[in-house]
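Consortium newsletter contribution from the modelling node. Members have asked for a concrete example of what our holo predictions look like. Here is one, prepared for the zinc ion complex that several groups have been discussing at recent meetings.
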Amino acid sequence: MRPPSKRVKISDNMALDDRQDRYPFPEIEARWQRVWADRKQFKVTEEPGRPKYYCLEMFPYPSGRIHMGHVRVYAIGDLLARYKWMRGYNVLHPMGWDAFGLPAENAAIDNGVHPAVWTYENIDNMRTQLKRMGISYDWDREVATCDPAYYKWEQLIFIRMLDRGLAYRRRSRVNWCPSCQTVLANEQVEAGRCWRCDSEVTIREIDGWFFKITEYAQELLDWCDRLPGWPERVLTMQRNWIGRSEGAEFTLPVAGRPDLGITIFTTRPDTSFGMTYAVLAPEHPLVDRLAVDDQEKGRIDRFRAEVARETEIERLATDRPKRGLRLAARAINPFTDREIPLFLADYVLMGYGTGAIMAVPGEDQRDWDFAKAHDLPIVPTVKRPEGWQEDQAYTGDGVKINSGFLDGLDIEAAKRRAIDWLVARGLGQGKVNFRLRDWGISRQRYWGAPIPVLYCERDGMVPEREENLPVVLPRDVQISGKGGSPLAEVASFVNATCPKCGGRARRDTDTMDTFVESSWYFLRYCSPTYDRGMFEPDAAAYWMPVDQYIGGIEHAVLHLLYARFYTKVLRDLGMLKCDEPFQALLSQGMVIKDGAKMSKSKGNVVDPDDLIRRYGADTARLFSLFAAPPEKDLDWNDRGVEGASRFLNRVWRFVHAHLAELNGAAAGRGAAEGEPSGSEARTFRRTIHETIRKVTHDIEHDFHFNTAISAVMELVNALHEFERASLDAMPRAERAALLREAVEATLLLLGPVSPHITEELWAALGHRESVFKQPWPQPDEAALARDEVEIVVQVDGRVRGRLTAGVGAREAEIRERALADGKVRPWLDGRQVAKVVVVPGRLVNIVTRG
Ligand SMILES: [Zn+2]
Ligand SMILES: [Zn+2]
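And here is the predicted structure:
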């Protein structure tokens, strides 16, 4: 196990005036958790014909303990799940474990515990913790991705993807984390550092497997416009990551070498006349053939070695000098028919576009910097605005100059004309390019799903036969964390039989990126024990897509993009009938304390176990939902927890203090019984139903759980006031019925937030059925109606007065009173009333003519 972390206890010196009065949450919470489990209350099956709601929180990595960030995201998910139960939906709300990954391996290195043992112990601990939170999971659907019965299906899909060319192997320069000793995908490199351990990433050239996500670039981009339930921020990050650009691809002839041509991509074909040199990536395959002699070959090799030490991030940084090597060979600009110099430079990457660019220093800043550094000519091709200082590249609008047949055109027209010109001469064509690159999935680590491929001396690379799956990860392995894949040392794993010829073959010893497992776990939940395929097609057809997904923004271009891609692949393999996995996404903010994200290294971690032991899960949940709107950061403060606890105690005490009266009352006053007679009673009843309306609205629109809870708190205040004021002022039966109506509404509205206490009090009111089997309360329109309303009076669209009128007042009466109103009349002086528009109950607009 990992060493226990330093944890901050919730301070002991907080004012706890009512500590003695604490309601007995430990017993209550344990009991209801048992009842829910015994009744299998949250177990679901497909019920065609009944509306479904698939509510999903991103599953955790089993690190061993849940933290406050988990509490927050699971409390949000549970609120929505329970709310939808009460609205009559068939709710799928599952939980599982993203169980492969490096920390298990590191724990094995540090403590000599096998990653499997470490992982499953952690899962047990975290499951216990989660159960203590009382979340409405269907635990029968629990899934752990390190289970061979799980990754078997991902190996099958790998083979099918291989068959379709969507998985392929190639040698490539990859991001390498020297500390994690593994390859990282581009999405896993943040500002040149490893997303997991923060080490500086280096570059290596190795063989590895890729998923062809680029094949789906356009579709992934197009669907960004068709996901209205996603935060715009996440969609923008995905659009930028996919990075579509339109331009032209064409070939530059090499002077004196008719056998060679350099293909370039540019987003600015209109600037071609300003191309004064061209640049190749040092890795470009043409470079060796361009070298004129051994001396130049040597220079090229030395230059490549220097560049190989830089990361991509460094190479692309705009603020550093541009390293370049001038070649003896020269290219020809087909637009001007002039010879131009050719360079190798570090700022051009092989993976982008074609690995070669035309350089237009007049209109591109990086080219400008390079041209200045290497004393190259600069030819502007766009007319500069008045007063422009010619000391940097110009990227703005303008008409074309120095550009032959393009002169006088604007940029867009010139782009089209330049492409037409290239096409007419057979030199090139218009082209769309993407920044997105294929997803490298090979990892040189042990604790992952084996790649189901073998290498045979006779047949070369051969996929494992589908009937031989899963390729099980062997248990006996030495994990040192140093150099190469640990699986390569396991002879019984490596040495296998070729599925094709029956001869000797070696297994691939890399494992898959754990993001492959998380790209489809939501599908496995639909039929977690199905053994004839990845998922049961009818179950997936019923449950998918996920209606509400909840998880952190840090996954915007990682998991959330991969899962979209994988879903589309499964669709195209004919397995799934849905285009997108997640209908709606809620990205919750972080939990911060003392101005920083809670983290062990900062020593500002609050342990959910302490919190729950001391205040109960209901308080922990209430606090985390009340303290901030879900998409904002939640600033931890002890007083807020204390306040949440006091509120629940107050509800508890009220119900128990009035139990006899409440239980003597007829349940559920309805509109049929008529409105109560007194104005105070009517006002109170309106408050109850306004609260129901507001809470429903706040949950449904933008997930404003904090304001919803605040409305329930106000209702409880009103309840206390009404109780005092009505004691001797109204008939006992009427008072009891109203108190009961208010208490029941409070419990129903609060149920999804703090489920244990509400179940307990609901039962205390004599109900036999769970509060979560009740329909969500509906506001009673009769109770909402006011006796009088305020009506705004406008003259020509401007507010000039206000009237108070009876709710039932006729239009003619309102019109007459508006025209006669003392504040309105002066605005009508000397003008003719052309029209009077009356919107009943809201406003009068008087239109005049002068
Ligand atoms: Zn690392
Ligand atoms: Zn073979």
